[in-house]
Amino acid sequence: MTQKFGRTIGRRSFLASGAAFIGAPVLAQEVDGEGTVEIETEVTETAPRNISSFRSLDWRPYFSNLKNGAVLVDITSRALHYWSEDETTYKLFPSSVPLTEDLTRKGRTKVVRKVVGPSWRPTPSMRIRNPEWPEYVGPGPDNPLGTHALYLSWTYYRIHGTHDTRKIGRRSSNGCIGLYNEHIAELFDLTKVGTQVLLI
User: Fold this and answer.
1) Distance (Å, rounded) from C-alpha 117 to C-alpha 192?
2) Is residue 75 within 8 Å of residue 157, measured between CB atoms?
3) 160 catalytic, yes or no?
4) How much of the chain, in percent, has pLDDT values that exceed 90?
C-alpha cells in the first residue's frame, strides 16, 4: 500500500512537471559536455543559487568591435557572456558577483594576465574587514581563486574559478567575478591577454 502510494505520487509529480515543461516558453538550447549553455534564442530559467535568468545577447550594443574577443559581465543577471573575435563562438556562463554596490566596479577593462593555479592574497581592505583571514593561500583546493584566473587591468580585480560552488549565481564576492572551475577553464582557453572586458 505504501509502495503503491509512493509510485502514484511519483507518477503524478512526473506528469505535473512534464506538463509544466510543455507549457513553458519555447526554449532552444544545447548543453555541451562541459555544462555550458549554448543558447540560440532567449532562455529564462529559474534555478537554485539565485541564477535569475539567462538571455542571449548581441555584442554590438556593448562593443564597437570584437578585436581579441570580448567578455561582458552582467551584474544584475549574474551572467558572463563571451564572443570570439571571428564571431564563431558565443558562450554564456552563470557567475558570482560582488556582495554590495560599494564592492562593485563597472566599466571597461581588459585581460592583462592569465594564470593556471593562481595564488591568493587578501587585499588591504579585505584584511581590515576580515583580520582572521590568512595573508597568503597557495594554489590548491583551499584557494578562493579556484583553478584559473584572468587578471584584469584594474588592480585586485579578476575573473576566476571557485571551489565553493554555492557562490555561483549569488552576490558573494569581494569584487571579483567567479565562475565554476570547469567554466573558467573553458573561458581561460578562449581568451587571451588583451581580450576586452565590460562590466555592466
Assistant:
1) 17
2) no
3) yes
4) 56
Which of 129, 116, 120 lies closest to 176, judged by CA? 120
CA-to-CA distance for 89 and 83, rounded, in angstroms? 6
Partners of residue 175 on adjacent β-strands: none
Q: Provide the pLDDT for residue 53.
A: 59
What mean pLDDT comes out for the span 57-84? 96
Q: Using CA atoms, how far apart are residues 162 and 147, in angstroms rounded to an integer?
A: 7
Q: Which of 81, 148, 160, 183 is catalytic?
A: 160
pLDDT tens digits for range 27-64 = 333 333 344 343 333 333 333 444 445 789 999 999 99
- Answer for the pair 50, 185: CB distance below 8 angstroms, yes or no: no
Q: CB 49: neighbour CB atoms within 10 A?
A: 15
1, exposed or middle or buried, with CB in 10 Å at 0-12, 13-18, 19+?
Answer: exposed
| Residue 172's pLDDT band (cuts 50, 70, 90) | confident
Closest CA relative to residue 48, chosen from 13, 94, 100 = 94
Best CA proximity match to 179, nearest among 153, 158, 200, 199: 158
Q: Which of 81, 148, 163, 176 is catalytic?
A: 176
Task: Report pTM.
Answer: 0.72
Residue 18: strand, helix, or coil: helix
Reading the block at residue 127, the C-alpha cell is 584584511
